Model the fold of this input.
Amino acid sequence: MTDHALRLLRQHTHLAELAAFPFDFDLDRTDHVEEVRLASGAPLRPVAGDGAGGTYFVCADGSVLYADSEGSAGIIGSSVDEALELLIGLPGWRDHLDLSPSDGPEKILAQVTETEDEFREDYGLDRARPRLRAALGLSERSPVELIGMLHAALLRTEPDFLLLNAEEGGAYALLDGHPRPPLWEPVLAQGKADLAALRAGDRTAWDTVAGDPVRRRLALRAAQFDRADGDLELLRHLLRRETESSMTDELRLAAVLVGLHGHIEDLPLLHEVRETDFDTACGLSELPRPDADGAVLQEWARELDESLFGTDPSDEPPSTWTELAAAQRLTELARAALIRRLDEIEMDQSLLRRPGTPKALDPSPLRGLAHEFEQLGDRVQALRAQRLYTALQQTAWDRVSARRTQARLERETGQLVEAERTLAALRDTLADPGDESLRHWQGVNLGCFIAEEHYALTRALVDADLPEEALVTLAAADAILGELSGAGATAVRELAEDVAERVRNPRDLG
Done:
């Protein structure tokens, strides 16, 4: 569909006034209550608003995203024309967000009638609706059809149209409460298809799937949750090829799935896999001896299966699915899931409690989130996770290490003033650690990393034409370098000389 109706509203004041009242689509209300952006970074253009503080945005593909003033958002149409069909045909659409075609025509019509009867007389709905619809050239659709269109549109909101608070980075809630498939379903779709092809004996698939590291991982995950007695030969084949990726979770999974069959003739294969390299030797170190019997092999596989794998995809750590989504370049699917998880932790840090020690928090999931965001290329969200991770560190060593990473992310996202402050706080901890964990920081890699980040920030400050700040940071970097010892200090001195020259001659060095 097109946005022909929007052009008509902009051209004809009387139509714009009719759209604003009684249909609450006001072209003069384009200032949302806060700055927002799409998580994907795609463009977003406000075109109208309503009396409750909500805003209608047009996305790059023409879809209309509605964001209310309470922090919820959702796609309501594939174009402005379609959104206006909804608003005109269902002026009480906000009261019907949780209706779906599965509710049936009788329930849908009853609810729509009840809503419209409440304001029909006061708003002159029966006169305004046909007039505006005809002027804009919009189709007349039944409430049942409009609910179907709205339901389909809402389900498209995530992952591609996830709306964020631009300043804080948190996500808007969904407008509706409709169930969505769990993350693992779209992530595993390719793996299930490939597993079916492997089971069908398609030899081309055996070579294609096994030769592709991502598809191989997905096929093994699909086999984890859909086990069949006839899979042994294809599992052996995938296991052999997975050694090309060295020690992965899927390599261990393949070894377990093979071992569960309890065939002693598989022990030589498993030991051959184990000896692929140092990492596989460590990762499969508890493999039964080559002369073990089938029962021992099966018991080894069963114990690992129960502790690490299992047959329910919902029991897998969320990172399994976000990492596999990212590996398939389902970037927005992975990003949306990661942002939602970070939001949950930010709102409720009790989610980080260690089992058995309810007063202690384990901040490591935040470090994992920061890493996954960086892998996606989303340093803004990585920094958000890293800042929360930094705030939860207990020892001086951990605070310094976390602040160094935080400063790097601030520098890489152009937040140079914030990076200066973070490094200043880092230096305060070095000067007064409060515990013994930093006793030897000058002689280990951490000291070199701290110095390197100071010099990197100095260079960024020069490039940003902030010479005074660059000189202050350079002085701090030189002071830290002066405390370092060992071979690492020698390597940092070369960087120090290069940065010092850049501070002296910023224009000459470009």
About this structure: The chain has a mean pLDDT of 95. The chain has three domains: 4-174, 184-315, 393-510. The two ends are 50 Å apart (CA to CA). Residues 104-123 form the longest helix (20 residues).
